[in-house]
Amino acid sequence: MPVTPQDRTAAAAARRAQIIAATIETLAELGYRRTTFAQIAERGGLSSTRLISYHFAGKDELVKAVVADVYASIDEFLAERAAREPASRPIRQPSGVPAQPFTGSASDELRAYLTGVVAFVDGNRTRMRALQSVFAALHDEEASEAAKGAAYDAATDRGVLEHIQGILRRGQEGGEFREFDTFVMAATVQRSLSGLPFLLRTKPDLDLPAYADELVTLFDLATRSSRTA
């Protein structure tokens, strides 16, 4: 049976996913600087590093793909939670997953975002360790500018903050939340979540469900209107 273009596309996608998965494992175990194509090929069971080079022009391009993959998996996780947690909303709606309308409170949506992201971190420790090692390159003086660019995508960060700001604005417009600078509050919310992989290095036995509960209480007190107190 001849190989069709669709077969080639599917095979290429599967190979890219295999390489990204192996890169995540390597980054989590060895850190950004010690992650090489040779190490990735060994963990991914690839016969040659040329298989990686065929799909990715270099390490920085591969790392960008890893970061994008992790963020996409967070969106998929949050979208799946909507079946049992209607207030759960992904930052970007995953392709092929119909959006579920939510007409409940903004405070419920903020709570669902906080608990959902913490639950993702709790169930995806390897992915988050890999992301942490990538972000560490931002503070590595010897890292190239290309490496730092791969580690930090300003557009993605803005998209996350805008998602949270949207929740906060809705709460203000509906009278649930007090008046405050939504950018400052959104940044505070997100940094309390994006710092989790670093906290887990400091305290590996951190009780993440309890951490999520504390964040919910903290931001409820920080945002609530005196009319709903």
Distance between the termini: 69 Å
Main CATH class of the domain at 67-223:
Mainly Alpha
Query: What general form does the structure show?
Result: globular
How large is the share of residues in beta strands? under 5%
Question: What does this protein look like?
Answer:
It contains eleven helices and no strands. It has helices at 5-30, 37-44, 50-55, 59-81, 106-123, 125-136, 145-151, 154-173, 182-194, 196-202, 208-223. It has 229 residues and is mostly helical. It has a domain at 67-223: Tetracycline Repressor, domain 2 (Orthogonal Bundle), CATH 1.10.357.10. The mean pLDDT is 86.
Secondary-structure map with pairings?
Elements (H helix, E strand, L loop, with lengths): L4 H26 L6 H8 L5 H6 L3 H23 L24 H18 L1 H12 L8 H7 L2 H20 L8 H13 L1 H7 L5 H16 L6
Helix pairs in contact: 1-2, 1-4, 1-6, 4-5, 4-6, 4-7, 5-8, 5-11, 8-9
Summary, kept brief:
This protein is an all-alpha fold. 68% of the residues lie in helices and 0% in strands.
List its traits:
single chain; 229 residues; mainly alpha; Tetracycline Repressor, domain 2
